[in-house]
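Many introductory courses stop at the sequence. We go one step further.
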Amino acid sequence: MRNIYLADTILSIMAEFYAQGQVAVSASQLCVHLSQSRPTVNRYLESMVLAGDLIRVGKGPATRYQLPATTLVEVHSLPHFASPEWSKEALALQSLLQQPLGNRVPITYQRHFLENYQ
């Protein structure tokens, strides 16, 4: 069973890093801030990735973790006056664009269009 306090602390630390401009954080950076062993932090990170609380980016020593886009918007919500009022279609497109790249549907070029372009 997951220690909710430690999971919440990891999310808080991730939000602090994000606020300082660092989107992705390594497990070793979290170990330093949490004063926990690397295996413990790795276990929690793995369970949080499986639960959808975090996104894993990269593999091996270059592995980094980041908050999902929905969490980033909640942590750093914009004031109401920062944006004009958008139509429902525009809001639907905006929500698609805020999804992580791995969740988006890939789009390919239409070869005949490119070949006939002048």
